[in-house]
Specification:
The complex is a heterodimer of chains A (about 290) and B (about 290).
Chain A lengths: L1 H42 L5 H5 L2 E2 L4 E2 L2 H32 L5 H15 L2 H15 L6 H25 L3 H9 L4 H12 L1 H17 L25 H11 L4 H34 L1
Helix pairs in contact in A: 1-11, 3-6, 3-9, 4-6, 5-6, 6-9, 7-8, 9-11, 10-11
Chain B lengths: L1 H5 L3 H35 L9 H4 L3 E2 L4 E2 L2 H32 L2 H15 L3 H19 L6 H25 L3 H9 L4 H12 L1 H17 L2 H6 L17 H8 L5 H34 L1
Antiparallel strand pairs in B: 1-2
Classes of the chains: A mainly alpha (about 290), B mainly alpha (about 290).
């Protein structure tokens, strides 16, 4: 009999926990769908061909976001162009050319961990002091891009390191047995095998760069004109959203429109990553 | 003869590659040193001119009359961090439990995907939502709306995916034999979770919370957009506040000389705060791995 009573009360607590779980889930899911709904329901009507191809007028209230998109592409492009060789090179060196427990390798890993944890505003301070002032690049697309390079590097390296670790060591042994040089082993065997991971890291870094605002506020600046060179100041789409919603009265509709464009860009990147991962897993299995 | 001069032997190319890669790796790690060097050198320019104690004892933050009390902003940042964590951590851990023990498998996959996607959403988007939707709602309860509460809620939403992802991986890693043993003893599902799974995962969950806290303290844009940015000690949840990060973002554009240096000092403080949280996170992570 006591067993029966225990079981009865047990069931009722279990039921309450199940209820609690579903409540938590609905709350969280509801909140996130609310945010997305708010952005898309207000922003989708703003997005049109002219919105994407015209430059902003009167502080962004009128016109579109063409110059902003160009500046964003240039800043993210510079960021990834510089980050890719440094990132992949560092990852290859960490995995293939140095023992994981050597002190130099440990220092590199630790400094990358620190870099990954730094708040973005600190990158902004550093970028302003180093790229804009010490190197004399001023408020420019170039100093913004280079500041973002510092920011995305640890994520790029981490993904590449994981990709290289996933290459079976029998590949390396086989290549060595065939008398291939380290260079051609790397170029013809390791990098192609790890390519999906490297591309994923590249896209992840790109997503981070696109989402960033605080590090660019005083490195690439605010100017919303069409940039003519990488030494011009230019604002990314994230800064555009911030500026429209905070500093431009009546700037909310285009801010929503830009937010929709930004979210769609990020979703495309995310689903590409998912697609690559799926495709590669499938290929590895068959 | 000629070809011998032009073509490099295998080992020569390998040596070149090795050196090239080492230079790249050095560059990567040099960035951190460079950042810390610059923050410190810009911050310590101030030491000869004013006493560091003044950052805590000055009557207020009036940079134009050279008064630099950072205390209200430090308190503001810490309050934001704590309240965001209080809101986000229980929900995130329960969501992770939900994915592992209560959700139908197909739903769990979708939830995990969504959480991943929400980590990629930029802070300005959360800030925009907070500014346009949340702040008016709070203002209808008590003006002005832009407040510690608005900041805490937006930050909680932002750090939720981070904590949930870490919690999920920690809970997945709880050895299956513990769970099977508990089930074999006749424990109900909820008591398996609350008396076996969560206690086993404790330090890992704590590490996830510290990671969330580090993100919350370092967040700039969303906080800048919804907190009101008035420099004051918060006395209630509805008071507008200014965080350390927003202070830098707001004033860096026009700050000169000693004012600029004061902003670098607050950046250094911020970095140290985040590093302490990250080191604690590492400690709990290794504790978790050894447990």
């Amino acid at each position: 009999m006591p067993k029966f009573g225990q079981r009865l009360s047990g069931i009722s607590i279990e039921h309450m926990v199940i209820l609690l779980m579903w409540c938590v889930f609905s709350l969280v899911a509801g909140l996130f769908f609310w945010i997305l709904w708010e952005i898309f329901s207000n922003g989708l009507s703003q997005v049109s061909w002219t919105f994407l191809t015209e430059s902003p007028r009167s502080g962004g209230r009128e016109g579109g976001i063409a110059s902003v998109l160009v500046a964003t592409a240039m800043i993210v492009g510079i960021c990834m162009l510089v980050a890719l060789p440094i990132g992949v090179g560092t990852a290859v060196w960490l995995v293939e050319f140095t023992p994981a427990n050597s002190s130099f390798s440990r220092i590199v890993r630790m400094s990358l961990d620190v870099l990954a944890a730094m708040p973005s505003i600190v990158f902004g301070l550093f970028g302003n002091a180093f790229f804009s002032i010490t190197l004399g690049l001023g408020f420019s697309i170039l100093s913004g891009g280079l500041t973002l390079t510092c920011m995305v590097l640890p994520f790029l390296i981490r993904t590449c390191v994981e990709a290289l670790y996933a290459v079976p060591s029998s590949y390396r042994l086989g290549a060595a047995a065939l008398g291939l040089s380290r260079t051609s082993t790397l170029w013809n065997l390791l990098l192609p095998t790890a390519m999906s991971g490297i591309v994923t890291g590249f896209l992840l870094g790109m997503g981070r760069a696109l989402a960033e605002t605080a590090a660019l506020l005083f490195t690439s600046g605010y100017v919303d004109r069409m940039p003519e060179s990488i030494f011009d100041s230019g604002r990314t789409i994230s800064i555009h959203i911030y500026d429209l919603s905070m500093n431009v009265p009546g700037g909310e509709p285009p801010a929503y429109g830009s937010a929709v464009v930004l979210i769609i860009l990020l979703l495309v990147i995310n689903f590409t990553i998912l697609g690559i991962t799926r495709y590669w897993q499938h290929r590895r299995l068959t | 003869m000629l070809s011998k001069h032009i073509t490099l032997s295998h080992s020569q190319i390998d040596t070149l590659l090795r050196h090239g890669l080492r230079v790249l790796a050095l560059t990567s790690s040099f960035i951190v040193i460079l950042i810390i060097l610059f923050l410190f050198s810009e911050s310590f320019g101030i030491v000869g001119e004013i006493s560091p104690l003044r950052f805590f004892t000055d009557p207020g933050w009036y940079p134009t009359s050279e008064q630099f009390n950072l205390l209200p902003m430090i308190v503001g940042s810490l309050c934001l961090m704590m309240s965001a964590l209080l809101l986000a951590a229980p929900l995130a851990i329960l969501t992770a439990v939900f994915c592992n023990f209560y959700a139908p498998p197909a739903l769990a996959v979708i939830v995990r995907r969504l959480i991943e996607i929400f980590t990629a959403i930029p802070s300005v988007i959360y800030g925009l939502w907070g500014l346009v939707v949340l702040v008016p709602i709070i203002a209808s309860i008590q003006a002005p709306g832009a407040s510690l509460l608005a900041g805490s809620i937006v930050l909680a939403i932002m750090i939720f995916p981070t904590i949930a992802m870490v919690s999920d991986s920690v809970i997945v890693a709880v050895p299956k034999k513990y769970i099977k043993g508990a089930v074999a003893l006749g424990l109900e599902r909820y008591s398996v979770i609350f008396s076996v799974v969560l206690p086993t995962a404790k330090s890992g969950l704590f590490a996830g919370m510290l990671l969330g806290a580090a993100r919350a303290v370092g967040e700039t844009m969303a906080v800048l957009m919804v907190c009101g940015n008035i420099v004051q000690m918060p006395s209630s949840l509805f008071d507008p506040i200014r965080a350390l990060t927003s202070n830098i973002a707001l004033e860096m554009a026009y700050a000169m000389d000693i004012h600029r240096t004061a902003l670098f000092v607050s950046g250094t403080l911020l970095l140290m705060l985040v590093l302490i949280l990250i080191i604690l996170n590492e400690i709990y992570q290794s504790k978790h791995h050894h447990a």
